[in-house]
Amino acid sequence: SFHTYDDTALVGNEPQITYGKLHEGHRLEVLSIPQYTRVGRYPNAPEFQILDATGADVSAQYDITRNFGALQVEPRKITLSSPEKIKTYDGEPLQSEAVQLTAGTLVQGHELSVWEGNAITLPGTERILAVYCIKSANGDDVTNQYEVTEDVGNLTVLPLEITLTTDSASK
Hints:
Layout: E1 2-4, E2 10-11, E3 27-32, E4 35-36, E5 40-43, E6 47-51, E7 70-74, E8 76-82, E9 85-88, E10 94-95, E11 100-103, E12 111-115, E13 119-120, E14 124-127, E15 131-135, E16 146-152, E17 154-158
Parallel strand pairs: 1-7, 8-16, 9-17
Antiparallel strand pairs: 2-4, 3-6, 5-7, 8-11, 10-13, 12-15, 14-17
């Protein structure tokens, strides 16, 4: 079983007997069912015991094959973008814009913090740096719970064009 990260738990299920049967008067008691919130692949391995009519644990009387599945929390997909910027050299830095969320959504209560990326002054081209952090409602860094696509352009400073001319001369 899987779901996309949403800051709520993905809960496993109770084991079912799919082969064989319990001795008369015995019962399967589930002690805990796994649940996971963070991105990852986890075993769906509930804790259980087999009890007799008196409530005594008789699990050792069984040869138990555990054929448990997996629980998977997938990262939440978002896209952060910053447009390309171009200018002609003027001696002043060309500053990238902070990235913005342009596709997908954050989990309710989460906040995207962004900083201005980078700047260039001299002629040339540099990829815009996406500098960001995603925090949960209680302030935890949850950036790694998201699969972030960075759709950023370049910063380009074009050289000033000049033409040098000299007079012709003869003698």
